[in-house]
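Forwarding these from the shared drive since the link keeps breaking.
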Amino acid sequence: MKLSFAHKLSAWFCLILILFSVSLVVFEWPREKKHKQESMEERLDGYTGIIDRYLLAHNHQNLKVSIDSLLNVFPPNLRLTIINSDGKVLYDNRLDSLSSIENHAGRPEIRDAVQHGAGGDIRLSASTKTEYLYYAKRYGNRFIRVALPYDVQLKHWLKPDSAFLYYLLVLFVLGIVFMSYTAKHFGLMIKRLSDYSYALNHDLPVNPPVFPDNEIGAVSRQIAADYQRLKASETALKLEREKLHLHIQSSAEGVCFFTSDRKVAFYNGLFFQYLNMISDRLTDNWSERLQGSKMLHEEILAPIVEKLDNAPETTYWETAIHKQGKYFALHLHVFDDRSFEIVLNDRTRQEKNQRLKQELTGNIAHELRTPITGIRGYLETILETPLEREKEREFITKAYEQILLLSELIRDMSLLAKLNETPDTFQFQPVRLQAVIDRVQSDLAEALQVKNITIHSTVPPDTTVSGNENLLYSMFRNLTDNVINHAGEHITIEIAQYNCEGNFAYFSFSDNGAGIEDEKHLARLFERFYRVEAGRTRDTGGSGLGLAIVKNVVTFHGGTVSVKNRKHGGLEVLFSLPV
């Protein structure tokens, strides 16, 4: 059975009180007994004094006769012995013959009297076989010893006063009652605190307990208030920890936390995924790699260990990793308690985008340079050189054509930028595809007629796609412009819907023109500013962004696009759009 705090406290109080009472009795009882014995010895000392004065007064008379007459005034059971300085017994009122009595120099009371002037002892008499309380005192060259039989009466008289024990017993009982009350009162407050703590730990509904208005109550109230704040802080900390875990698990970064002794504390799955991508060995045995500090034994993390060993004052450090065709940024964050985190960021897409931006910037500058240089050249010639009116008009016309080319380039670049950066500005609606094709054919009728190009569409009139009409118009116009600029003359364009499955319709846009002789160029036709040699140079017109716009428009609508050479000549573009 488990004892309560109050019972344990009462038991300890009782034990302490019992030990105190026992030690008091053990200490005081012999002192009381000794005090009684000393009181009796004082009485016997008075007897020896009277006898000594009597003997000095009657020294010339018969010793025995004189002493016998004196003993009539003393208690009848008093034994009187006179011993000389050598220990020889000169007189004993309890013995008829002294010849057989041994020397008393070795008796305890005589030895004490020799050393201290007086002494006493309780022992059995060798001569009378009676137990006596002896007292001997030295007077000049003799010892006067008196003794009383150590009988029941004397023992009772020498016994310590029992009132002390009764008084001590009463105090003991009162102490037990008081301590039990105090322990119960104190234990009640402890129990209230314990019940309150249990309720808080198990999320049970409970009101703060009522404590007495004293120092202990004040301390208890403070403990309860501190405990409430601690539980509230603990709850808030758990919530923040859960938020942190969720954030780390959903983070696009690979994160792993380490303790100050370099053991794994927490991680997310992306960290191991990235580690497997750039590590020389692939493993899914995470538990083995999480034991102790084995994680830091990975070769890819060697720079981290070196930095921690050689530069312990480091709080932040990063480096780049290029491996397995991937670009990763490796970050180290060291905290104040020397724990740290390692963060892996996949920078492959950013690096590719950066490279593409650099290439795009170069291509844009290259594409803009040609028309601007032409415009500048024509205008400088007109301004600085006297020309015939017809020649001047020719140069102005050529400058105007270059401006049109520049405007087309800027328009196409703007459209691509808008598709990539603000796609939400394009609204979707049902679009009848044949109407878009008819609009393109009408707008490019003059250019088509010059090249003797005809458009033949077999797209069903009721085919309706979900998309943006302006973007779809731009897509078909750029496909048609591509044929006009690069396919040659006397060409036929075929536009057909060859399949409709699920939510998508599949279309073909083909021509029977020149096509592309070297098929290695087919895979790059949709790249921005990519041009095929010979028949597809800048001199043939176009911004170099037409097919890139086609691909971006199709992708924006959720479809796919590809290009191939036709068997009997020309190109065929295959694409899908949502219906």
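-- next protein --
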Amino acid sequence: MIKQWTHAPEGSAQAVAALTEELGAPYAALSRVLVQRGLHSLAEIKDWIPGIPISQVDPFQIADMPQAAARLAHARVQKETVMLFGDYDVDGTTAVSVGKLALERGGWSLVTYIPDRYKEGYGLSEAGVQHALDTGVKLLIALDCGIKSNELIASAQQRGLDIIVADHHTPGATLPPAAAVLDPKRKDCPFPHKELSGCGVGYMLWRASFQKAGLDPSDLDDLMDLVAVSIGADMVPLVGLNRAIVRAGLASINAHPRPSLAALLSARPAGHITLQDVVFAIGPRINAAGRMHHGHLAVDLLTQGHPEILQQLSQDIEAHNLQRRSTEQGVSLAAQAQAALQSDQLGLVLLGTDWHKGVLGIVAQRTVETFYKPTIVLTEHEGKLSGSARSVPGLDLYDCLDAACEHLIQFGGHRAAAGMTLAPEKLADFRKAFNAAVEQRWPIDQREPNQWIDSPAEIHELHEGLAHLLERLEPFGMENEAPIWGLKGVELEHVRKLSEGKHLRAMARDPKTGAQIPVIGFGWGHVDPRGPVNLAIVLEWNIFRGNKELQARILDLQS
């Protein structure tokens, strides 16, 4: 697909000049980007880089936190068994794992529960509630789920089970009637850090409960590595509190990695571990447990300390990850063949009766990348259709599903990703309603593939000194993306094709100045560049066999 380039609005020339004077003339390209992002001086940059430390955050600002912490502290005194119930994805399983490690350290008695993707589906389940009641649990904490489970929570409370919801998804019109509902997205919640992960909300609860029980919340600082995994995998904004947690977590992973995380990173080449390593090496493997087997396998791994058991668990998870890849490829081919027949639909709703439920979210994302349309991928199981959805830039997916919710049994999620369940006989009506909602809410001028460019640049501006400064601005992610530079009219020399023609490696050269930089284009092996080209790139290091070389990674290439 040919992408339209959209350039970020230029910042004040005066502000750019002033910041360049502080940083130095070789860093004018970086000054342009930082001013665009609201950072106008070296002092502001230094203040922004560390984020907001956890020690400066009061978890009791979260609505209902006083009640939640008091109830959990009471459970400790009374020696009640607490159930930690979490979703089967990375955010949910890390939330349960952090809770288990924290509360056991603080003297609580607890059990953990992850629902079966096929038997129970997404979110708080009746089976989980019944298991809690059958085993004498008095308090259940719903992590990364529960915000819309109003009826089930009302029923559970009537049956004598107290429930605390610790979620980060968008609430419905009415909050569930739980003992406490912790969700920064509540309209009446004064907590300033609105975009925590589900694990992050749980982490605030553990710290508040330690404080309420007379324990030291700083004893939980070492658990920020797992919270950082949830933040990276769930793609929440890397600013403020989230930024500080991720920086602390990555520092811990690099200095003395938790054995479980070290096991998941064992196939990665030695070297500094970044958030991208967490997202692409740790996240998919944790997810694979819930996708292909059972999410509790991930909790067992993340909370395990015995080396031999840990080795076996990590091998099991890697096997599930390989199975996930193979399954995903087959389902993707079938889904995209179906998508090609829906060229008249603005929103794609795809259905396979035998597609593996565990890979539907990944397949939806792959389909979005191919067709640039919001995509829902469904499969049939026990008389119901269930699946996952992924959105495109500029479209609020949750809002679209809300507009079509009369045809759904249940749904949940956020702007970019969601899950849903519906009856087979409702499929045609839902497809029509979803397409209409997309048509109404997706601006026409945003319906073509787009490549964001933070700033135009010349090759001579992209040097090792700049790359070292960019490292100071990491971690990069949502709301702090790595700067994307636009190079126009450059020539590609010494072009080589890698991995049986899949990828491209070359030297980009400015014909005017002769400045050059190595470039790598993953998935660009099909291109045969002739003459001047325009490149959208990010600057990074190529580390291979102990050698570290500056390179530009191609995001878009246009002849």
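The radius of gyration is 24 Å. The chain has three domains: 4-48+451-558, 54-307, 342-446.

- D.
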